[in-house]
Amino acid sequence: MVKKNAIMRYKILDSLLSNRNRYYSISELLEKVNEALELDGMEPVSRRCIEKDLNTLECAPYEAVIERVWYHGKKCIRYAEEGFSIFTKKLTEEEENLLSEVLNTIGQFDGLDTFEWLDSLKKRLDIKEHRRIILFDSNPYLTGKKLIGTLFTAISNKCVISLKYHSFKNSEANRYVVNPYLLKEYNNRWFLIAGYKDGTIRNFALDRIEGFEIMSALEYIEPDEDMESRFDDIVGVTLLNDMPTEDILLWVNEEGYQYVKTKPLHGSQRDVKGEEDKMVREKYPALQGGRFFRLQCILNYELKQLLMSKMDQLVVLEPATLKDDLVDRIKRLNSLYSSI
Question: Using CA atoms, how far apart are residues 52 and 101, in angstroms rounded to an integer?
Answer without folding.
Answer: 40
